[in-house]
Design a protein that fits this description.
Layout lengths: L7 H10 L4 H13 L10 H20 L4 H8 L5 E7 L4 H14 L5 E7 L4 H6 L10 E6 L5 E5 L4 H14 L4 H14 L2 H10 L2
Parallel strand pairs: 1-2
Antiparallel strand pairs: 1-3, 3-4
């Protein structure tokens, strides 16, 4: 069978069967970091180093990220059963800042089921949710948990960070190492609040 012609619902169902919880994802990333490895086929020193850095970042956000009372009330009032299926990889810098924040939000409401798949093991799924033609991650696909119908998407960055990237590319043509460092500083200063705001908007 030509997998390119599979209906989206079949692709999503297959991906959900291969998905992991956030706790399983964190264990995976920590284990890879400790054993000088990374997700994906490219086991380069650079990607291993990013995985190790991202494990530390996620540990920090798991401990320190906070959801305001106002946002918490909005999240807790949502009563439709949904699945947040997120495409990621351990080496992705944006994912390290965003995945723990998604978890903080999902933990506040039992109606939200947070599942994760790896991009390079789910090419067919990734190809359905490209960003400007690219396989940018993390990518959150919001599904109706009963029908697996796609309701919305989020990612690969919060809206504010996306605009920063677009504006910089428009002016300079490409993202420089200096800009990427600036973006990391923005994530640290923002403390996940822009991501929380975007996720709450998905629930409206």
């Amino acid at each position: 069978m030509n997998t390119d012609t599979l209906p989206l619902e079949n692709i999503i169902l297959a991906s959900l069967k291969n998905s992991m919880t956030y706790a399983e994802y964190r264990t995976l990333v920590s284990t890879l970091a400790a054993t000088n490895s990374t997700t994906g086929e490219n086991q380069t020193e650079a990607l291993v180093a990013y995985t190790q850095l991202n494990d530390r970042r996620m540990k920090r956000w798991d401990k320190t990220a906070k959801v305001s009372d106002a946002m918490k009330a909005k999240i807790e009032s949502f009563d439709k059963k949904i699945t947040w299926l997120v495409i990621s990889e351990s080496w992705c810098g944006d994912a390290a800042h965003i995945m723990p924040i998604i978890n903080k939000v999902a933990e506040l409401n039992d109606a939200i089921d947070y599942k994760i798949v790896l991009r390079d093991k789910n090419d067919i799924l990734m190809d359905q949710f490209l960003t400007n033609g690219g396989k940018s991650i993390p990518k959150l696909i919001m599904l109706d948990s009963e029908t697996n119908t796609v309701l919305d998407t989020f990612g690969p960055r919060p809206i504010v960070a996306t605009k920063m990237v677009q504006d910089y590319k428009a002016e300079h043509g490409m993202l420089t190492p200096e800009f990427k460092e600036d973006l990391q500083r923005w994530y640290n200063k923002d403390k996940g609040q822009s991501t929380i705001e975007d996720l709450v908007n998905l629930l409206k």
